[in-house]
Amino acid sequence: MESNPMDLFMKEAPDVARAFDGLIQSLIASNGLDEKTKQLIYIAMKTAMGDDMAVKFHAPMAKQLGATKPEIVDAVLLSLTVSGISGVMASLPAVVKLFENHE
After folding, report:
1. Which value, to the nearest 10 degrees, does the dihedral of the CA atoms of residues 36, 26, 78, 103 take?
2. pLDDT per position as a tens digit, 2-47
3. Where do runs of H (alpha helix) occur along the chain?
């Protein structure tokens, strides 16, 4: 089995995967929010959904765009009022680990 779910998506449904990628590229290109803010919002939404895999993928992207540990942690914590503690418990360890030995 493929280790990367997106690779599997591309292999099994290439037309749909390309269309999905086009949607993502359109959202990235929109100019209402800067890229870092978009990543932080996405991290908060994915935490609220309990999708820690997406948080593990997007937290480094946010960091690369200049997001600090407190900013990313706040994005994770914002989900508490929406969906409770489970998403935070699933996502917070990866965020903390991302910044270990780099503070």
Report:
1. -30
2. 577 889 999 999 999 999 999 999 998 999 999 999 999 999 999 9
3. 5-12, 14-29, 35-49, 52-64, 69-77, 80-83, 85-99
Alpha-carbon distance of 20 to 73, in angstroms, equals 28
Whether residue 39 contacts residue 62, with contact meaning beta carbons closer than 8 Å, is answered with yes
What is the crossing angle of helices 35-49 and 14-29, to 10°? Answer: 130
Residue type at position 45: M
Query: Do 43 and 72 contact (CB within 8 A), yes or no?
Result: yes
pLDDT digits (tens, 9 = 90+) for 41-79: 999 999 999 999 999 999 999 999 999 999 999 999 999
Q: For residues 86, 36, 98 and 73, what is the CA-based torsion angle, rounded to 10 degrees?
A: -40
Q: What is the pTM of this model?
A: 0.84
Count how many Cα atoms sit within 13 Å of the Cα of residue 10 in the half-sphere of its side chain: 9
| Residue indicated by tokens 């932080």 | 40
